[in-house]
Write the structure tokens for this entry.
Amino acid sequence: SASVVAVEPEGFFNFYPRIHQASGTLAYLSNRGRATSWVSLYTTSLDSLSLMDPKQALGSEPQRRSALGDQPLYSPPIAGHAHMHEQEPAIKYINTAFDWSPDGNYLVYSVNKRNHYGEDYRDLFIYDLANEEDIRLTESARLESPTWHPGSQGLAAIQQNNGTQQLVWSSLPATSQLSEGVGEKKRRLALDANWTPLSDFTNGQTLFTPVWHPEQSVLYGAYADEGARQLFRVSLTVNAEGQVQEHAFEALTQSNFDLRDPFVSPDGAYLYFSADPEGRFNIYRVSLDPSGSVV
């Protein structure tokens, strides 16, 4: 039987694990060491987890660092736990999904920020891991749960508008441009304000946790429409300039129980997801063909 190792034995809120395969690094959100629900983003090496004794995992402390911090109400000192932001953190609250850049040098995430009108909106930022700096991408855009295109051509994200959420797309400049302005007080890289919609919901639907297939032209996610969450698939064609040429939204399931949090295996052969057909959530998988269609 498979061994089970506790990635985070301390936090009671642990969300959105994201593995960067090439670097062997796991990133996730946790409220570890805190008595509140505020969470930060942590990274840890998969090697450090694989070397742990499963029988002692709950008492172990793999080396990890806080990539994105917050301002906790309670934060006792923890051995081996170092904040990358020693003073006022760049992010005080983060609670939606995030993603790695394909090269593993950056993380894209969303967080509530107040604009010059005094209004709070979720906007997108990129965190530069090497320089420990944030790069602002949007202003008052109401975006969350970004996912980075495997070929670095752009970002897909969830956008709120008039009480309904849509899956949207924006191209990204070349990764080399992300290093411009290192050391500046407020780094910015403005994206097109008019994001391309990849869905056309009109009646209060909500979307969750989009993820890419490694084939680079297929996205999966979950959505809710007056009931249980269901899985969807979006196929799209993107040109060399990062512009969407065509796209198609397809509902993969129509069940009376929840199906959520899809994840594609690194080789693209399987789509994993969580579902509760008998009232208790378990992990399931279906086979995919090379194009990302369910077999």
